[in-house]
Design goal:
The complex is a heterodimer. In chain A, strands 1-2-3 form a 3-stranded mixed β-sheet. Chain A is α+β, with helices and mostly antiparallel strands. The longest helix of chain A is centred in the N-terminal third of the chain and has 11 residues. Chain A has 3 helices and 3 strands; from the N terminus they run αββααβ. Chain B is an alpha+beta fold. The model of chain B has no long low-confidence stretch (mean pLDDT 96). Classes of the chains: A alpha+beta, B alpha+beta. At the A-B interface, helix 2 and strand 3 of A face strand 4 and helix 4 of B.
């Protein structure tokens, strides 16, 4: 699975999102995604992750074997807030 | 999907204070993410049940539907879904897991 495709899928669901992706194994199937979006405001971390998983529902059943998620809102970017 | 397996999961998560749905067993986790959550729970010294989804393909699909969460492992405490490996790891690091497990 290509980085650009994952990014596009997430941004289709969360248009304001900034998405950083890291291929953990180099194989294109284990990813770490850091997603920042205003859509996460007022939501708990479980709900935030559900939004990202929902955007990738099809891929989570196939080409993505593992997805490590870090989600935050623009005001609370880790290390900047 | 049969509704009775969802009912069985509901019974399981409500009758066990801490229960982990995972790949493999406590003694022999079959996935790094499951292994990490087992390590964390062991370190907290709480009693917990586990269910091995690799031994039960129907359960493996049903648990994802039950929680509306597409990955394993999945931790439940006091009948509520807590999260998967990322969330449990983060809660542990922030000191939020210990009070939850003691509730």
């Amino acid at each position: 699975m290509r980085k650009e495709d994952i990014q596009r899928k997430i941004q289709a669901a969360l248009p304001d999102a900034t998405v950083e992706l890291r291929d953990l194994t180099g194989g294109g199937d284990h990813w770490e995604a850091t997603v920042v979006s205003r859509a996460f405001e007022g939501k708990g971390v479980v709900e935030q992750h559900r939004l990202v998983y929902a955007a990738l529902a099809e891929e989570m059943r196939g080409p993505i074997h593992a997805l490590t998620l870090k989600t935050s809102t623009p005001a609370r970017v880790p290390g900047k807030g | 999907m049969a509704e009775d397996i969802l009912q069985k999961i509901k019974n399981d998560v409500t009758s066990n204070k801490v229960i982990l749905y995972m790949k493999g067993t406590k003694a022999l986790p079959q996935c790094g993410f499951s292994a990490r959550v087992v390590d964390i729970l062991n370190r907290h010294g709480v009693g917990y049940e586990t269910r091995n989804v690799l031994a039960d393909p129907e359960l493996r699909e049903a648990i994802k539907r039950f929680s509306n969460w597409p990955t394993l492992p999945q931790l439940y405490v006091n009948g509520s879904f807590v999260g998967g490996c990322d969330i449990v790891t983060e809660m542990d690091q922030k000191g939020e897991l210990a009070p939850l497990l003691k509730q």
